[in-house]
Design goal:
The chain is 16% helix and 31% strand. It is of the alpha/beta class and 584 residues long. Among the domains are: 154 residues, Galactose-binding domain-like (Jelly Rolls, Sandwich); 85 residues, Immunoglobulins (Immunoglobulin-like, Sandwich), CATH 2.60.40.10. The strands form 9 sheets. The protein has an 8-stranded parallel beta sheet with strand order 29-28-27-26-25-34-31-30, with helices on one face. The chain has a 6-stranded antiparallel beta sheet with strand order 3-2-4-10-7-8, with no helix packed on it. Helix 1 packs parallel to helix 2 and helix 7 runs parallel beside helix 8. The radius of gyration is 24 Å and the shape is globular.
Amino acid sequence: MKHISTVWADKIDKSCPLPEYPRPQLVRENWMNLNGIYEYAVTSDTNTLPEKFDGEILVPFSIESELSGVCRALSEDERLWYRRKFTPDETFAGKRAMLRFGAVDWQCKVWVNGKIAGEHTGGYNPFSFDITDLLVDGENELVVKVFDPTDAGHQQRGKQIRKPFSFWYTATSGIWQTVWLEPVNTCRIENIRLTPDIDKEIIRIETNCSCDCGKLTAKILDGANTVFEGEISADAEIAVPDAKLWSPETPFLYDLELTLDCDGEKDEIKSYFGMRKFSIITDADGYPRLALNNEIYFQTGLLDQGYWPESQLTPPSDEAMIFDIEKMKALGFNMLRKHIKEEPLRWYYHCDRLGMLVWQDMISGGKNIGPILAGGLPGIGIHVKDNLYKSFHRDLPEWREEFKEELFGLLDNLYNCVSICCWVPFNEGWGQFDAFEIGNKVKAYDPTRFVDHASGWHDQGGCDFKSIHKYIFPIHKPSSRAIKGRPFVVSEYGGYSWNIKEHAWNPIRSFGYIPFTSKEAITKAYVNLHEKQIIPLIKKGLCATVYTQVSDVEFEVNGIYTYDRKVLKIDEQAIIDMNNKMTY
């Protein structure tokens, strides 16, 4: 592979990469970032701490990535070990010490000072352990052991694969999001759930506390102005009169402060929320349309894989995350479909404050379903029932339960993100099963957002969309029988490619749906695609589009930006002009 990197790769502070507080909607003043240099070792399967470590690794970058300093694959027969020392400061005196992981792929065990702190399975959701009783005065030792078989296993892994090619990408194993330590009270706020209702002009705040003996108070701020201040119940509805509504054009956020007072011991957190509503309404021609804040709103989006040449699934910095969002917004896009990846919470925070709608995919899993189910049958309009568990490689009940547990863990983790407007449980039949039932369960769990129950291929007639993917062949509106009264969305299309060799991951072996060899040629094709196929469909009921894609990723050169984010392949003004035309 060719060595390419973004401009942020050389700016990493190796003593503490990604130094920002990782959980913007549940912020405490005191915390200790545990990113940085760890010792690492790769061994066979054993619970015995290695006698000798192989070298150093930079956390939170995966062992396969360049920024980790290791850049080697992990096989299904190997185990990855981490070790580092840490010394809690004076803010931990008299407090409980919570060890938090943003994400570790895939299965891990954690020891503190030689004693087990806990175990976790699942490569994308955050988890925590109370390690108070394992700590000693002064220096402490943290050890993490990871098992990650990637595509040799059944787990949720998205596009990760051990031997990357085409649109399958290098595996991410081990710690790949921030690790931190947080001092908390015994009586504390564990979590919050924020649900705006612009019709009732209220914000619902559900607070989960570790005890029920404290007094809970809230303060809501509109900039410098106090909207509300006072005592609330654990399940409270607070009036937000004449609310400033959130949208991509006006991404206004209210500040929220919560305090739990237990006999004078106070736990204080800071958060935020946005007042907005997603719904489906019927237009004057009888078409169901997506609406934002009770008005029809056309969503013009991009597929966003969230990969980086030097760090893979882990964004190299806050600035890198902001770049992608700001550049896409400047081009006139108002939505990103986060494709079978769950980002660090700070990415969603930047979408919230900058104003970018998000469709959030669940991470796919299981084995490759083969060419017939993966493209052959859908290509001729045949969608099969997804209770054929063996065909979709979801044969074992425990595999299906594991998927559902991780799916609802994702919903819980991201529920408060203002920008998320749609959940996507399944993509193109990859590990799909019971999508109608699961889509309905997601909708019942969160009725405030849209659900694309089966994006692309094997539509089961579920909520909320008729969602199609179309590459290479012309895009047409599905029949009324297929749509079944649902909004019609093109949730993947385009994929126009240009392999710019100086900025390519692999200049020789590249993948793209329709190749071009110049900016002029790809721009002309992009404009023709939208003027002749996409824009005419809007008046026929098309509600949203997702163009493939934000940037190249490894072998795949379908991006409007190169993988290193240094070249915009399509003429900027042409993209803006097309997006300006894509309105209802």
